[in-house]
Amino acid sequence: MGVEGCTKCIKYLLFVFNFIFWLAGGIILGVSLWLRHDSQTTNILYLQLGDKQAPNTFYVGIYILITVGAVMMLVGFLGCYGAIQESQCLLGTFFTCLVILFACEVAAGIWGFVNKDQIAKDVKQFYDQAFQQALMADTSETNNGKAVVKTFHETLDCCGPDNAIGAITPLWREDLCPKKDSILKTFIEPSSCHRKIDELFSGKLYLIGIAAIVVAVIMIFEMILSMVLCCGIRNSSVY
Length: 239
Description:
This protein is 80% helix and 2% strand. It is an all-alpha fold. The model has no long low-confidence stretch (mean pLDDT 77).
């Protein structure tokens, strides 16, 4: 015997929310794959200075997102099927998966909040070490430091760290910096690589944060609806 009345409305409402949840999982999976293969981050985070690799903390978060997106799509499908079939077993499994996912999302959010500044800080330290090596090299000399610095400068359209040396670098080391149309433009347009690194990662983390909040709200509604529907199915089967 199928559910009737308000419980039937909850059944279809849960199906709609699960479909949105499934779509959100697909969007998160797509966005995380885009962030993983974004040309700016890959150009910078695949660099190697001697035997030292660029910090990969950012990619740890991206791999977590890829996993979450894939699991969300699976759980969303499970919730849709459980709601249509009015299966208490499937809905109970769906609710358990949601609780686990929600706990993982909270843990990932805490990890991301703690490490959000550390990601940019580690990349800036890596850049500063390469910049020091590049400055010590002769203009005609080729070394790993110069190659790393030039990749940063060309990818982010910047030149030098956020200090006095960085401000005058475009004037005496044109081999390291992207060329500007004029000397005046060099001083007018701020080109600190520290600032550009902050902008690069803060923008991406802001996007991830918005997606996480939207998904968390949907999950809370789904947990409530799945329990209400499960109770409604149990009560209707009595009669």
